[in-house]
Amino acid sequence: MTGSSVLSTSKFPPLLIVEDSNEDFEAFERCLKQYSSAIPIYRCTDGDRALAFLYRTDYYTNPETSPRPGLILLDLNLPGTDGRALLHCIKQDDRLRAIPVVVFTTSNNPKDIEACYHQGANSYIIKPMDFKLLKQSIQTLLSYWLEITVLPLDGLEDGRL
Predict the structure, then answer these.
(1) What is the sign of the dihedral through the CA atoms of 151, 111, 137 and 106?
(2) What CATH code is carried by the domain that includes residue 115?
(3) Which pTM was predicted?
(4) Is residue 44 within 8 Å of 16, Cβ to Cβ?
(5) What is the pLDDT of residues 34-72, one digit of tens each?
(6) How far apart are CA 40 and CA 12, in angstroms?
(7) 107 contacts: CB under 8 Å, gap ≥ 6
(8) CB count, 10 Å around CB of 29?
(9) For a designed S-S bond to 98, which of 31, 48, 103, 161 qualifies (C-beta 3.0 to 4.6 A apart)?
(10) Residue 122, domain member (yes or no)
């Protein structure tokens, strides 16, 4: 999969990946390389750090180093505040709810799927255990959200969205 010439010249909003697995995060990073360095990527390894990042508290008070993301990729099974609670917080907050959240998790529990969509998840993808299928799922996810979908670039920082 290759990016179009529009991708290389357009600006991407920041991507926040909330993922505790180093292997899964590294797979994302490898797949994101096709988009060059145009996509600012931020990672939080647990829900508490993600909340601090989104609300700019603790180590994340500087908007230059913790900008409002245009897309959040969220694992459900996180230490501390888990992805379910984090999704609830995001979608209940007027300043955050417009940020698309893609749940990318190993849970295929129908109750998790239903609850995430009920809470406002924009997509729910089950991580394949096979690395080749995982890579394919990540590439499809990125192609859809970064090439096909138009994400907001303005208004995230000043709270308009």
Answers:
(1) positive
(2) 3.40.50.2300
(3) 0.85
(4) yes
(5) 766 578 889 999 999 999 999 999 989 998 888 999 999
(6) 7
(7) 76, 77, 113, 126
(8) 13
(9) 161
(10) yes
